[in-house]
Write a structure and sequence with these properties.
Layout: H1 2-24, H2 28-53, H3 59-70, E1 78-81, E2 90-93, H4 94-102, E3 108-124, E4 130-144, E5 148-170, E6 173-191
Antiparallel strand pairs: 1-2, 3-4, 4-5, 5-6
Helix pairs in contact: 2-3, 3-4
């Protein structure tokens, strides 16, 4: 009797484990929705960077946008910064990057992102997290009142995207969902 009971418990646990694994796999429809969400978050980041870098944005508004932009990222994430005059790429923590962006020594700054696209499909990691890479091209322009355009470059950047299964409680019920977070932004090349 005990052996039958133990066997039933083991079978139940294996069945439950199988269901958990099946739920952790992404269906094509779920993957498409997650891809769309990841691209939307990157587009949001593009808008936030443009607002933060804009010299006409009031300081208090820029601080609110920085908070929203920071929420898009995983902890300890770094963003690469390059320029035409230097070979080295400097990496800054997300908050420091945004603070430095606000303090750029130009009278006007425009930052545009374009050609936003996945370059690597989401790949499942051993811990169940999915990781992919989105590439963007960033056009940066710095202006002075006297001289007009004084600096311009285009940088190709790779953004690591993490998709993790999370839980939240709504109305006393435990809800599972997939969340998309941005990771490091690596500079691939900078050109005129």
């Amino acid at each position: 009797m005990r052996k039958q009971f133990a066997l039933m418990i083991m079978v139940s646990l294996f069945a439950m484990a199988g269901r958990v694994t099946a739920q952790d796999n992404l269906s094509p429809q779920r993957k498409q929705a997650i891809d769309s969400l990841a691209l939307e978050k990157v587009r949001d980041l593009s808008k936030y960077i443009s607002i933060i870098g804009d010299k006409t944005t009031p300081w208090s508004d820029a601080q609110r946008v920085i908070e929203r932009a920071t929420e898009l990222f995983m902890e300890n994430t770094e963003i690469g910064v390059s320029s035409l005059g230097k070979q080295d790429v400097n990496y800054y923590k997300v908050r420091e990057y945004f603070d430095r962006l606000m303090q750029l020594n130009y009278d006007k700054v425009t930052i545009d992102w374009y050609k936003i696209q996945y370059v690597s499909d989401l790949v499942r990691q051993p811990d169940g997290t999915y990781v992919g890479v989105i590439t963007v091209y960033q056009r940066f322009q710095g202006f002075s009142k006297e001289k007009g355009l004084v600096y311009e470059d285009t940088t190709k950047k790779d953004i690591t995207v993490y998709v993790k299964r999370k839980e939240t409680q709504i109305g006393g019920r435990l809800i599972n969902f997939w969340d998309v977070m941005l990771g490091d932004i690596r500079v691939k090349e900078t050109s005129k």
